[in-house]
Design goal:
This protein is mainly α and 132 residues long. 60% of the residues lie in helices and 6% in strands. Strands 1-2-3 form a three-stranded antiparallel β-sheet. Helix 2 packs across helix 3 and helix 3 crosses helix 4. It is elongated and about 50 Å long.
């Protein structure tokens, strides 16, 4: 085994470039378990996302870190908000891919109805103003 291989084998492998890894570490031999570098709490399951909830202090199924700085707490909240937005976007795209005509028909139908409503309102206004 080379020197590089032994150092990789002895330390946990981080599977992403997520900035949250600067505040925690993956636990060797246990998939998705992490440890907070601020309070040394072991977080079972959930991986980096659950560590973010711990550091952000957002109520979930993991206890909030009592030793994290406000700056890191804010950063983790931002990362979780970005993750939420990304998941919502993926869901919308999946729906659109699954049924691409459904959204287009709704949009066209919606615009068509708006035009008709404007004409109806405009027509009734002109009638009411004539009768006054």
């Amino acid at each position: 085994m080379t020197e590089n291989q032994s150092s990789l084998a002895s330390g946990p492998v981080v599977r992403s470039e997520d900035p949250a890894w600067a505040n925690g570490r993956a636990m060797p031999d246990v998939r998705n378990n992490t440890q907070c570098t601020f309070c040394s709490k072991m977080i079972s399951g959930g991986g980096i996302t659950r560590l973010k909830y711990h550091l952000a202090g957002i109520p979930s199924d993991v206890e909030a870190c009592k030793k994290v700085s406000e700056d890191v707490k804010w950063q983790m909240k931002q990362l979780l908000e970005d993750l939420k937005k990304s998941k919502q976007k993926k869901r919308r795209m999946s729906k659109q891919i699954a049924n691409p005509y459904d959204l287009e028909e709704d949009d066209d139908h919606h615009h068509h109805d708006e035009g008709n409503n404007d004409n109806k309102r405009g027509g009734s206004k002109s009638h009411s103003s004539v009768s006054n």
